[in-house]
Amino acid sequence: xxxxxxRNTRTIEESVVTDFADRLSYGGYLQLETLLSAQLPLxxxxxxxxxxxxxxxxxxxxWLKLVLHELGAACRLMRADDLAPALKCIARVxxxxxxxxxxxxxxxxxxxxxxxxxxxxxxxASGFQSAQYRAVEFTLGNKHPGMLRVFASDPASHALxxxxxxxxxxxxxxxxxxxxxxxxxxxxxxxxxxxxxxVFTPELVPVLAGIYADTGANWAAYExxxxxxxxxxxxxxxRFRHLKTVERIIGLKTGTGGSSGVPFLRRALELTFFPELYxxxxxxxx
Length: 286
Description:
Elements: E1 5-6, E2 9-10, H1 26-29, H2 32-35, H3 50-79, H4 83-107, H5 112-116, H6 131-139, H7 155-166, H8 170-180, H9 187-190, H10 204-213, H11 219-250, H12 262-268, H13 275-283
Antiparallel strand pairs: 1-2
Helix pairs in contact: 3-4, 3-6, 3-8, 4-11, 6-7, 10-13, 11-12
């Protein structure tokens, strides 16, 4: 039988399209000319490792765009009491989070000496100014109105972050869904100011404990609780890898955006999205 391979060369099948004069190509569909021309190192002469730094952060922003898309869909579906497809969106976000976390190992190949040779061209540019990252944090409930100041000079970014600030978080939507299903969610939770950061609400713990006490009767709510815990675990792993990569590359230098650097990132590990879902674990089996 003809394998289609001779002298380590694969035969191009006659049916393969090669004329794209009037057809949509792979590059055209993906707008690769635009995408691949967006890497513009500023170092002179161009430092060979600046491309790594740019690609790392640009790919992160592409993944964050998809995360926001999926979280937005999950919120809308929960609002419509359509939980199963909302959980599919969350499952996709969890896989993206794993990819984002693993990406830090690529940036970690950049040594302190290499980075120091082109760090100056960044000026005050910093990941702290990522509007999409901030919108993801806000969508998960860790809101901070003061962050809007960072985006005051960029109307589009400001609008994105402000919209995430003013919208109910994923957790808000889940708790509202539970209330519609008859769970005893406190009124102060349902009527809270959604522009503020979520804070631990002890009155929720008994409600969640009841869900965990009979998972069979509360399977959909129980499954969602565990999916949300996965989201937070993954986010904290990302934060930790970010911290350790920065520490590995710049030590205790201040950040380009003006933060204290590693100490500032370390404090982010104390931030939480769904504290009651962790607190309830202490109550299970008592």
